[in-house]
Every structure is written in C-alpha cells, then in structure tokens.
From TrEMBL:
InterPro entries xrefs: DUF1468
Keywords linked to the UniProt accession: Membrane, Transmembrane, Transmembrane helix
Source organism: Bradyrhizobium icense
Keyword presence, Calcium: no
Occurrences of domain DUF1468 (ranges): 12-145
Descriptive protein name: DUF1468 domain-containing protein
Ranges annotated as spanning the membrane: 43-65, 77-110, 122-141
Any single Pfam family the record assigns to this protein: TctB
C-alpha cells in the first residue's frame, strides 16, 4: 500500500456517515419531534442522526487533514460470514426461535476470523443467546418466540 495525501478510509467512512444521517433526517422530516420532556416519534431518530452526522463530519475532516495509507483489499471471508450470519438470523428467528437463531448467527459470524476457538465461540453464543432472550422477551416483553413452535 502506498501513502497518500489524504486518509481515504476515514474520508469515505465520514462521507458514508454523513449520507446515512442525511437520509435519516430526510426520512423523518414529517414526524413530530417534541422536546426532551415530551418526545415525539421523530425525536430519537433525529437525535441519533445528528450525532451520526457529527461523527461523520469529524471523520471527513480527519480524512482530509491526515495522511493515510491506501484502503486494504476486500476480504471475502469476513464479508461472507457476517452476511450469512445476518441472513440466517433473519430467516430463522421466527421459525426456530430467538435462542436457536442467535446461537446459529454467532456461530456463523465466528467464521469471519481464523482466530476463534470452537469452545469459546459456543460458550459466547450461549451466553449471548441467553442475554438476548432476557432482554428482548423477558424485560422488554417483545412477542418473539424463544423456541421453535
């Protein structure tokens, strides 16, 4: 990789964050905002979008003023593992339940790196699955099945 006068990775990341924040602000423009004591449906999306935009401006500025190295080539293994993980979770969460779908998603995501160990990954998947069930089903009361029907 060669050095360039700008940090292209930070610049592109910052521009991406600004674009996402702008899209969110445009998409929520018709929602009532309210104020901190009486929040409307547009309050939190706008607060998060503005924070995201601030980060985007920061990274864009840093990318313009800092010399950086070129962008590393795309690694297919992590990309495919994470995409497969998200896809499997989306397709199986309702059918197999949150517990099994989240374990499957973590196990698939672990293939994104060669450094993972099977026993540690299984333990982490079970703990994360339990935490997800506790948070989303028990504490928040979302109507998500825990196990297959």
């Amino acid at each position: 990789m060669t050095r360039s006068r700008i940090d292209l990775q930070d610049l592109l990341f910052g521009l991406f964050l600004v674009a996402v924040a702008t899209g969110t602000l445009v998409a929520t423009r018709n929602l009532t905002v309210g104020h901190a004591a009486d929040m409307g449906p547009g309050y939190m999306p706008r607060v998060v979008a503005l924070a995201l935009m601030a980060f985007g401006v920061f990274f864009t500025g840093r990318g313009l003023w800092r010399t950086g190295r070129g962008i590393a080539p795309v690694q297919l293994r992590p990309l495919l593992a994470i995409l497969a993980s998200v896809g499997v979770f989306a397709l199986t969460a309702e059918r197999l339940g949150l517990a099994i779908a989240s374990v499957a998603a973590v196990m698939l995501a672990s293939f994104a790196t060669r450094e993972g160990r099977f026993v540690e990954t299984v333990a982490f998947a079970i703990v994360l699955s339990g935490a997800a069930v506790l948070l989303f089903v028990k504490l928040l009361g979302l109507p998500i099945p825990i196990w297959p029907r």
